[in-house]
Design a protein that fits this description.
Bound molecules: adenosine-5'-triphosphate, the ligand O=c1ccn([C@@H]2O[C@H](COP(=O)(O)O)[C@@H](O)[C@H]2O)c(=O)[nH]1
Radius of gyration: 16 Å
Number of helices: 9
Strand order of the largest sheet: 3-2-1-4-6-7-5
Helix content: 40-55%
Distance between the termini: 29 Å
Structural class: alpha/beta
CATH superfamily: Acetylglutamate kinase-like
Number of strands: 7
Length: about 230
């Protein structure tokens, strides 16, 4: 199977704890024994802190995105170091696809301003024709409202891709650099377009990613292609 895993910076390195990065490296490395594995790493709190500081200094949104991309690539290097020694993460989809073909494993961060690594993961999944896309994030799925703001928010177990697009668009998440949402709008649209099976789960423990891939056991939200499961 060809697998793309989006590893949120907030789950990989919330506090730069090497043990957690090693645990992710171990899980992805083990999965790579049986599958082709591409990991796309986010920027997390550190990216947001840089972006906030640069915004106060008067940086424009593209400059702030570029800072964010820099941090995602640092995090990608960190995860790469945990797996196979430090490597420079590919900066474009064709280079990432080439590494994936050659090595069966690739780790990358951001690509261009104006999006998040959610969209990078969805685009890479479409580019390499992945069988499965997993978002390992800081919340246990997609909810009908932000679960960190609304204690009564309910999780979707299965969500048609069109509904995901609608929900993300309604939340106004297509915003400024460093904004947070379960998946950004571009990612949601790419997931819809590609029809690739997509899971959103709590990635705090990388074992959840392993179980989801290995046994199909997972708690979170499965984004299903439009029309699937409808009467
Ligand atoms: N409807 C929703 N369902 C789930 N999460 C939501 C929703 N709306 C907003 N969120 C927010 O989306 C965020 C998703 O996690 P987060 O921003 O930490 O992204 P990440 O991709 O895991 O990591 P990174 O920090 O690298 O961006 C959470 O902070 C959560 O509060
Ligand atoms: O392709 C990309 C990836 C990221 N950015 C910017 O970086 C931050 C942090 O990325 P997350 O995926 O949200 O952790 C993001 O908010 C963007 O500002 C980008 O511009 N392009």
């Amino acid at each position: 199977m060809k697998l793309v895993v989006s590893v949120g910076g907030s789950v990989l390195a919330p506090d730069l704890e090497p043990g957690r990065v090693a645990a992710y490296g171990d899980v992805l490395g083990t999965l790579a024994a049986d599958h082709e594995v591409a990991a796309v790493v986010g920027g997390g709190r550190v990216a947001r802190e840089y972006i906030d500081a640069a915004r106060e200094l008067g940086g424009n949104e593209i400059e702030l995105d570029q800072l964010g991309i820099g941090v995602t690539r640092l995090n990608a290097r960190l995860l790469g170091a945990a797996m196979d020694g430090p490597v420079k993460p590919p900066e474009a989809y064709d280079a990432a696809a080439e590494s994936l073909r050659r090595d069966g494993l690739v780790v990358m961060g951001g690509v261009v301003p104006g999006q998040t690594t959610d969209a990078v993961a969805a685009a890479l999944a479409e580019y390499v024709e992945a069988d499965l896309l997993v978002y390992a994030t800081s919340v246990p799925g997609v909810f009908d409202a932000d679960p960190n703001e609304s204690p009564d928010a309910e999780r979707y177990d299965r969500l048609p891709a069109a509904d995901l697009v609608e929900l993300v668009a309604a939340s106004g998440s297509l915003g400024s650099a460093g904004s947070n949402a379960p998946i950004d709008l571009l990612a949601a649209k790419l997931v819809q377009r590609s029809g690739i099976r997509t899971l959103v789960l709590d990635g705090a423990d990388p074992e959840r990613v392993r179980r989801a891939v290995r046994n199909g056991e997972f708690e979170g939200t499965e984004v299903v292609p439009d029309g699937v499961g409808e009467a």
